[in-house]
């Protein structure tokens, strides 16, 4: 089988003879005498497209042959026209080429190895076996894009065994037989079977998104080309929305958000102070009353707990506090200093369709019941 994608990654239409067609669990596995469909491998997903009237849903290499899994059969011996999904192919070419540039430069600078590579539908990841910090990642991104914009030609060759023996190139394993070498002059030389752009300028843009500790080194997330443009456009749209909402200049939204957070922190502190005074007044009001049932609107779970604890310290019995409404249910907190709420909690959850738990003297949870049903149960 001739693998046309090895020589011409820009080939999107081709003709071939059907040599085999076997029904499988996923459809029909078809072998051709030649193909431009790239099979999954080396971290790169397979191509999609059509073979005559049928859709190609998966492409894998088995025993050196490229198997096309299709949604329908083809006649053995027939000639079919194959069409590659070019948008998908070019996106993968941009990303695989971007990975070479980033990996090659990183290995030059820090003497590391690319020990993992995955091309996902959203981002691609590269794993290096050295630690790289945020500042180094930004330097790597700048250098990678400078290489892209210099528009270097990408070279593909099949060196002889003698040439291969003296050639310095990246590879994760010992290679024998026919070896395909992809060279990004000045950035990377690597044994690779994937598809790549003709010149580095066709990568367009490389955006490194994150660097995180991973095993003995780091994992970098990145996007390239059209996907990078789409990513940055989405960020711009979000930032533009924030800019309008906060009446801040487009490059000053960070400061505006910081101010908003400071104001929010101050407001929360004020609310907590007001709540504490209100809870204290309620505790004095119910001092010595014994068991107390309270309903308070719009309390967080933490505020509900603090109210319950404050009143329970004064009332001389248990205190049950609820916050919510008849349509959505109620959050609750029950406190009984020195007492045991185990049986009451079980009965409350069972009767009022609730869930929750805690310690013998304090439980917290929620119920799906009306205010009237809660009052009837605890009265």
Tell me the span between the first and last alpha carbons: 83 Å
Low-confidence stretches: none
- How many DSSP-defined strands? 20
Q: What Rg, in angstroms, do the CA atoms define?
A: 33 Å
Q: How are strands sequenced across the largest beta sheet?
A: 2-3-7-6-5-8
Approximate strand percentage: 25-35%
What is the helical fraction, as a range of percent? 25-40%
Number of helices: 8
Structural class: alpha+beta
The biggest beta sheet reads: 6 strands, antiparallel, barrel
Name the overall outline. elongated
Q: Mean pLDDT across all residues, rounded? A: 94
What order do the SSEs take from the amino end to the carboxyl end, as H and E?
A: EEEEEEEEHEEHEHEEEEHHEHEEHEEH
List the helices and strands and how they pair.
Elements: E1 2-3, E2 13-24, E3 27-32, E4 34-35, E5 49-51, E6 54-62, E7 65-70, E8 79-84, H1 86-110, E9 114-119, E10 124-128, H2 134-149, E11 155-157, H3 161-166, E12 181-184, E13 188-191, E14 206-214, E15 217-224, H4 225-246, H5 253-285, E16 290-295, H6 301-315, E17 316-325, E18 329-335, H7 342-351, E19 354-359, E20 362-367, H8 371-378
Parallel strand pairs: 1-4, 16-17
Antiparallel strand pairs: 2-3, 2-8, 3-7, 5-6, 5-8, 6-7, 9-10, 10-15, 11-12, 12-13, 14-15, 17-18, 18-20, 19-20
Helix pairs in contact: 1-2, 5-6
